[in-house]
Amino acid sequence: MSGRAAKEVRELEAAGWEQRESGPESLWRRPEGGRWWAHYQALIELRKERFDARAGLPKRGGAA
Fold it and tell me: Where are the domains of the chain?
C-alpha cells in the first residue's frame, strides 16, 4: 500500500467509516450505515461532508 493510500485509509477510519476488504477493491460505509462506497468515492463523500460542515450547510443524507 502506498503512503497516500495508507493516509486515506487512516482518514476514513478516523471519521468512523467501516471498511470491507482491503486493497484496490475496498469498500467503505459511513458511520450512519447505508450504502457501500468505492474507496475513492468514500473519500469524496467524506471530504464533501467536512466542507459542508465548515460552510455551515445542512448534513447530507446517510442512507440510500
Answer: 3-55
